[in-house]
Amino acid sequence: MSNVQTFEFNGINRVDWQNSGVQYAPGNDLTGAGSNNNNTIDVEIDGSAEDSEIANLYKAYAGNQDDGSSYNGPRCIAKTRTVNDGNPEKLRFYIEGVLSLVIGNTTYWQTDISFAQGKTGSSHNWWLGCDKMTGITWSKDMDQPTAAKTASDTLKLAFDIASGDDVKFAEDALDDAAKAILKAVKPHDVGSGLIGFNINGDEKNIQLILFQMDTHSTTVTLTGSPFQIPNE
User: Fold this and answer.
1) Assuming Cys at both sites, which of 46, 60, 65, 120 could form a disulfide with 2, CB separation 3.0 to 4.6 Å?
2) Taking the model in full, what pTM does it have?
3) Phi, psi dihedral angles at 111 (to 5 degrees)
């Protein structure tokens, strides 16, 4: 008999999820994943088996952060306390697809978002991943220069700009984004990551969004004003 696992987004009006793929551990049966015109994603799954191969597939899908920061590992976050815990060893399942967040009258969307579920202690914990996520941390220890670099790195990924390209974003806009990141990260010692989302279907208009994970939910924070792709 299937049971429904619910993941909640705090701070938004509605979430829309377009599922494009699923993987689940042998012995389980995942029969559905979707949103219900509210701020949650529901996954219907039978079985509680976990498998290391599912974790390996998920980490490969999410990609790897290796940008010289204190964290070098998969581009995914959970509610964990140490950097070493940023590497899921076994998972029940993961789903991949397109995530749309409705905040006020604006829709923000991003492809290649993934969610997974593992186990910590006696409860199941969720993971959120994206190959365009940067600034992954499980610590309050972030300063203004690091936050500004994180914002710039996230924008380069969102706009598909090669890291070696000499692209300059407006310093005042980056500073505003960095201040918003610091304000959100400082009070919490949980998994955090920054992703650039397209605005209302415009691929040249990007909003940086900070995600902070709890066991079964994430807090969504807009960081500063949107960015336009720089003129060549």
Assistant:
1) 46
2) 0.91
3) -90, 170
